[in-house]
């Protein structure tokens, strides 16, 4: 008997077209209905209009970065938006980033370049079982960035500001 459940809806926000199209292709192959958007502000507008089942967002984007988008989601008055699973994608290798994602209530951190199978495993696990970094004492290594890396001064200031607001 075919599955009659509607497809899971996902918003993918990334200012790099190739990144959002690649993740969108992978998720569509897994039965998701995806909206691909080039910045956090557009993603926020779509989420406010109709909360999806998942948000996958880049960290550094114009108009509204991934941290700001995550913060808006977790502070929303709408419970369906506030409880939205959020995965942050980044090419940064900075231990502070993972900490801030957790402090803001993110559900996982995916290191670019993304591996299709590891990414789908994290996403399908999160959507089907509702597991998140917030609920795990020791998150899976595949969902976390390791090591220290180069980080832009702008993002460094944002990380510092967020860390002060959310100790």
From TrEMBL:
One of its GO terms (biological process) is phosphorelay signal transduction system. Signal peptide: none annotated. Residues 9-127 form the Response regulatory domain. The modification 4-aspartylphosphate is found at residue 58. PROSITE patterns: RESPONSE_REGULATORY (PS50110). Keywords: Phosphoprotein. InterPro entries: Bact_response_regulator, CheY-like_superfamily, Sig_transdc_resp-reg_receiver. PANTHER family: CHEY SUBFAMILY (PTHR44591:SF23), STRESS RESPONSE REGULATOR PROTEIN 1 (PTHR44591). This is Response regulator MprA. It comes from Novipirellula aureliae. The gene is mprA_3.
